[in-house]
């Protein structure tokens, strides 16, 4: 039986960084790298420390779950690690974002994470790990990053609760909550015409986020967060009224109209 790691969103950003540093966590017979861009997945064969199986799927489409389930049933591997790193955001006013884009965001950021977990857990043994990428945005309501933040709140709470449910089976789940991070995420998130979000305070390197996540996963933590600014902001939004937090955010971005 093959011992494998499954990584979604593996073609770029933190998903790619996780794939290329897998040997910091353990050893695997094969890595199932899932994303839409097949050529990017095939390029991983040169940089990932274990054999890569490129799997081109659009996880915002329900039929992708059937394809993934069929592959698991055919191969019957031991999935020792699942990393849900696929997702996207849009930094715009709610009413300015087309409805189909917002629904697609919910499909990829929420439904795909839930579906991959549900389909994969039956193939995991004691010691298995699931890492889901949430965000510091999960801790507060954020005008103009509204739907993205809400989807990441789902990922955070879903992951922490699932961790408790699967703990008796020896399977642990951890939510990773990055602050602003230098990835291709911004190529799609930022509307270059109006650039509503201008002040990013600090921008972290994905290598640091991933390095911290590997360490926290080995410690069986249910949340991983890197950086003083990220931790300080998360503490403040827990202590202060969210109305005040939103006022500060809007003033910071010059959006307090």
Description:
With 257 residues, the chain is of the alpha/beta class. It contains nine helices and seven strands; from the N terminus they run E-H-E-H-E-H-E-H-E-H-E-H-H-E-H-H. The protein has a seven-stranded parallel beta sheet with strand order 3-2-1-4-5-6-7, with helices on both faces. Helix 1 (13-20) packs across helix 7, helix 3 (63-75) runs parallel beside helix 4 (99-120) and helix 4 (99-120) runs parallel beside helix 5. It is globular, with a radius of gyration of 18 Å. The relative contact order is 0.13. The model has no long low-confidence stretch (mean pLDDT 93).
Highlighted features:
alpha/beta; seven-stranded parallel sheet; 9 helices; 7 strands
Per-chain topology:
Blueprint: E1 3-8, H1 13-20, E2 30-35, H2 38-43, E3 52-56, H3 63-75, E4 78-84, H4 99-120, E5 129-133, H5 146-166, E6 172-176, H6 185-189, H7 206-218, E7 223-224, H8 228-239, H9 242-252
Parallel strand pairs: 1-2, 1-4, 2-3, 4-5, 5-6, 6-7
